[in-house]
Amino acid sequence: MPPLRRRLAFGTIAMALFVAVLDGTVANVALPPITQDLGVSPVEAIWVVNGYQLAVTVLLLPLARLGEILGYRRVYLTGLGIFTLASLVCALSRSLDMLIAARVLQGIGAAGIMSVNIALVRFIFPASRLGRAVGRVAIVVGVSSAAGPSLAGAILSVASWPALFLINVPVGLLALLAGSRTLPDTPKSGQAFDLKSAVMSALTFGMLISGVNGIGHSEGLVLSLALIAGGLIVGTVFVRKQLKIAEPILPVDLLRRPIFALSAATSVCSFGAQGIAFVSLPFLLHDQLGRSPAETGLLLTPWPIATAIAAAISGRLADRFNPGRLSAIGLVLFSAGLLALVLVPSTPGDADLVWRLALAGFGFGLFQTPNNKILITSAPRERSGGASGIQSTARLVGQSLGVALVAVMFGLVPSHPLTSALLLAAALAAAGIVPSLLRRYEAPKTAPSAKTLHAEETAAGG
After folding, report:
1. What pTM value is reported for the model?
2. Which one of 72, 77, 211, 338 has the lowest number of neighbouring Cβ atoms within 10 Å?
């Protein structure tokens, strides 16, 4: 692609991805004014958050597969259009039912955006610049997910809650206009869409994530465990079905490859560690260390800033050096930063907190970019959608797992829950260091097709 069109195409992806990830967090801050304005209980209003997250999670892999069949550009722009329209409906909602329905629709659109964004990047940038491109995606995701609460608080200080959704409309329209002119057409497999597998995928991830979130929000242990058990049962049947398909919705053909499976697993662990930290740190700063809400927000800012800087640096390095080793270095720094937060003095100064938060954020950013590059380039080119779907799914599963683990720590270690949670986060980050070092990565000159991989694995006995 010509340089100007390439920049505009990536700008489209960045704008849409920013608001899609952001909307997964801003609604949490808006729940109190929503409950007051609509006259509903907090228990009822929680579905404003859960509806969006569930819609995104259950549709990521089916829409990634649909992108391989119909083309990533079509799925992306359709998702962006649905997201933009749903954002307007959210802003105009005057009842809880209408708002929840609009949020589910918004989540469907966000799933279209998130499911194929990395796959599109692979077709926008040449292989020699892919690391830098993936680094930019990591910057967008990291900054939007970390800055969501602060940005939402700033908007709510000058406007009512509908403004949180209304600002998506001009951004979405601009991204649609630019995307329709600049996003590339990608190869289409033309195969039939496996609706039965899509339903099983939705049920598996929907029940698992609902159960994990239920534990995290203390919504009933028996029901949460029942949902998790149901998800595991359906998931077992689902996986067995996918093993018999050459190009499945759940990319078991890719997960059979050790480098891909290790990269996905370490991504879950790192986002789990980040999820634990993002839930624990506000309590640590506000409740334990006595910082005001404004000070807490400002003190958390070094994390996303350091993540953005590290993602930009590691993106360039990942194009020149072994990304597996870069990932391991990032995990070492990430784990060290979390451990340093555990060892923070009882009466720390701001500088004591800032360097620890910056170290953790820098390590997280340094890990994510090369790890994501390995994920996307270790898959055949026509299976980029499956790899992109797994990348986004790993992030959401990890974050949900992190929230649930914090709740578990509050129950198991009531005397020191925050310290225990951060120690667990450091352990999760450290768990991927050795696998990252052991990954043998070579960027393939010509990636084998998914059908070839399936035939080779079948001949070798799976």
Report:
1. 0.76
2. 77
